[in-house]
Amino acid sequence: xxxxxxxxxxxxxxxxxxxxGIAGADDFSVYSNFPTTARYNVVxxxxxxxxxxxxxxxxxxxxERPNRDKFEHYASGYEGDPAFAILSPDGHTxxxxxxxxxxxxxLDKIYxxxxxxxxxxxxxxxxxxxxxxxxxFLTESLVLIDAGAGDWMNSxxxxxxxxxxxxxxxxxxxxxxxxxxxxxxxxxxxAAMTVDKANGIVYVMDAASLELRSFSVAGLIxxxxxxxxxxxxxxxxxxxxxxxYFNGGVSGITQAGLLVIGGAFGWGLEGxxxxxxxxxxxxxxxxxxIGNHAYTSVIYNDVTDRITVMSQGxxxxxxxxxxxxxxxxxxxxxxxxxxxxxIARRARKL
Length: 350
Known about the structure:
- The protein has about 350 residues and is mainly beta.
- It has a domain at about 250-320.
- It is built from four helices and 25 strands.
- The protein has helices at about 10-20, 215-225, 330-335, 340-350, and strands at about 30, 45, 50-55, 60-65, 70-75, 80-85, 95-100, 110-115, 125-130, 135, 140-150, 155-160, 180-185, 195, 200-205, 210-215, 230, 235-240, 250-255, 260, 275, 285, 295-300, 305-310, 315-320.
- It has a five-stranded mixed β-sheet with strand order 10-11-12-13-17.
- The two termini are about 30 Å apart.
């Protein structure tokens, strides 16, 4: 067992700001040591101290420091095609969704790990087995899941209680009428979802129609507890216009309140990262880190306010990747108020 050592958020945020400043819209640098996929995909989430936790379909890796180009291997045995990695509101639980297709033996498994003490896989790590392609925490125990209906023409939003307070997983529902704990019936297929905690809303993308809508978190929870079904169109608030945004869904909300949307307009079509004002639906910026408008996957770090993107086999960080401690690192520690023993310890290591 190898516990994750939580660092000071304020300290590392200060160091990042002093070292690299605020990144420009097209200011991305390449990670040289980002974990590569063991299967088909790589997903990740930011921990409460700003480090990224990465799952590559086999192992779990944790960044040594925020924005640092060094990742430590923490655990093995979490097999599957990575669909998502999400962190619970209290920062202790991480869920890893193994999507996949067909006869994949790991299909539909959602793993649960403790972010404070990541361990190698055991059968107890499987929180639930349920069709899924995307998910987000609504509360510490209730998880909103975008589950494919299986016919490539429909998908369903469902809520599952990972605490075990409800009986069993939500049944597979391929077509109407909607059954079980299904909350919203909608067309198309799945994309990333994100909760705006401050305003109590969740953003959901239909990746086929490129339609982005928001739903009240309280309304979703009420629909779940009362076993009623919300309507995708009448109960969801349309953001912008259909077809305006990339199909990756909302991967995060910047500290300036902008939605981070990656992906592309469709197979073989223009892609990148869009920063969208949810109030107006306007696209404030379109980022193209690789320079050829390719499909772009996104990991948004809500602690450092940095965007990590993956495109065509390379991974980029918005702003400068910290590769080695700079010559003036001790001086920065002094500015941050970490004098004395910390400086002496660093000096001995150098």
